[in-house]
Every structure is written in structure tokens, then in C-alpha cells.
Amino acid sequence: MPIDFRNTNTVWASILAETLKHLGLTTAVICPGSRSTPLTLAFAQHPQIEAIPVLDERSASFFALGMAKATGLPIALICTSGTAGANFYPAVIEARESRVPLLVLTADRPPELRDCHSGQTIDQVKLYGYYPNWQAELAVPALDMGMLNYLRQTLVYAWERSLFPVPGPVHLNLPFRDPLAPLPQLDTDILKSQFQPEAFFAHLPSPGEFSTTVSKAPNQIPKPTPISGNYLLPYQQWQQCQRGIIIAGPAQPQYPQDYCNAAAQLSKTLRWPLLAEGLSPLRNYAHLNPYLISTYDLILRDRQLAQKLVPEMVIHIGELPTSKELRTWLEEYQPQRWVIDPSHHNLDPL
Q1: In the predicted model, what is the mean pLDDT of the chain?
Q2: pTM
Q3: DSSP states of 93-140 as a string?
Q4: Residue 262 and residue 297: Cα distance in Å, rounded?
Q5: CA–CA separation, 186 vs 66, rounded Å?
Q6: Domain residue spans in the chain?
């Protein structure tokens, strides 16, 4: 689907729809309304997503819940601002208790139109209490590439949390400023000339990595579906890359030497440098790995050298180091990255 560059809202909403399509979304159940116009248009115009309009929010929410239960995949459930989202509450609770993946997208007024009697406005932040697996309010749409990267990453994490570690509902609250209709604006022209859809969506996780089968028995844990034969496992992708690095953040492993041995083995096998944070135990076992680098902050302050050393792939173990130079470098060049961590938390601030 081509990105809709008519205005800021159409860009934001069409990237949202296209990202979810890449992740595996096939169906969106939409309760039409004014504030959700950008979302409604984006899903309705997408040729690979079935957009189903249902006027009554409560009926729509249980219809979406049933579809998600039948397919085992998240269904997008969309409504406008105000009390519309409150009608989804019973279905959100049911999705939580039944372990059914559901992606609830509520449109909202921007911050400056809240708490001032602007009409059709309630507090939608954490509208469903503790029932969602995860919930967040997104930023107001913007055309900056950094913000579009943030939108993409937030959607990837939302999709993941709707399925893992246990399937359930995820709520994203999306504020939109006027114009809500797809009225042309000139400020999208620069982005249109620079935006490369193939590169932007290239490294999104494939649907096979996320898909699960929802068990009909409530006490059984869902099983992942097999990954297709065309998919390369991460380690296979790493082996094919000649320009990669490993970044190890702060860590307090129960068995430090085993942790350091494993990281060193990966680094030596791939022949990738390993950048170790000061609070990582890897520095205490530097003799295990000839590829260990502890002075990366100083190296990256040389702009010409930093540009020459840009990697194609990055593995970061746990949290990112606190180095601002390192974070700025990664954010500027946006290499493909893998985060290795046992938790379900989002550890990607870039």
C-alpha cells in the first residue's frame, strides 16, 4: 500500500496500517467517528486488510473478540474519542480473562484540547485499568523520521505484547490534531521525496515469528505456529553479515563467568566487536575475548571514524549502555538490531 502523503495525519495513519499489515494484521473492526477519521481511511484503503464497519461499539468489540479467538491473531478494534472506547470495556476484560489477542486503537483529542470542555472528550489514558497486557498513549502525529521510527517500534512492541508472554488485549490511545479529513498540506512534500518504504519496512518481524494458536481450553498455554521455510533464523542472518557489532549493557547475571563466556563465544564466532558497558561484568573477563572494546565512547567522538565504523547489524544484550555517543550513533544510522533479554519489556529506546 502506498503511504498517503496528503497531510500529517494521513502519513501517520497509513504507516500505522502498513506496519500492522507487515506484522500479520488481516482484519480491522471499525466504529466510525470524527476523531478516528485518519485511522478509518487508512484501514479502509488498505488492499490487504479487511475493514469491517460496525456502528455499535459494544457489538463491534465482541465481534472482534470472536474473530481473534477463532484466528489466534490480533484483530484491530478502532473507535473515535470520548465515551466510545468505554463501550469496549467488557470485551477487553473478556480478552484478558480468555487470553485472546486484541489490539484496541482509540482516537483522542490532542493534549491541548483536554480538560477544557472541548466536547466528546474524556480521560482515555489507561482507560481499561490493569486489564490490557500493555497500554500506551502515542505522540501526536509528526513528519520527523525519528518520530515515524518511534511509531513503527511502538507498534511492533504492541503487537508482540498482544501475543506474548500470554495473549491478551493491548490498548493504544492515538491523539490527532485537525485536519482530520485528508485535506492536502504542503509540509509533507519534503518527507515524500525522502521516504523509502522498502527500507522503512524491510526488517519488521514476519507474521510467522509472532503467530500463535489460541487454545480453546483456558488453562492451556498457546503454542507458536511453525516458522515458514523461507525465514532465516537470527543466527543465520548474523553469520551472513560482515559488518556487525555486539553491545552489552549493564548486567548482574547470577553466573557472571558463564554469561561472559557465552558473550565471548558469540563475539569470536561471528568475529564481531563487543562493546561492553562499564557496569557489565564482561570488562572483568576481558581476557576471554580479543574483540572486547571498552573505549567505544571515545572512539565515536571522532565523527569521521564513527561514520566509517557504522555496522549493518547490531545485537544488544539487555539494556543499552548509558553512553550518549553510542545511542546517538545508533539512532543516526539505524542499523538492523536484535535485543536479547529474558524479559518482555521494551528495551529499544531508539
Answers
A1: 89
A2: 0.79
A3: HHHHHHT--EEEEEEE--GGGSSS--SS----TTTTTT-SSEEEEPPP
A4: 24
A5: 42
A6: 8-213, 232-340
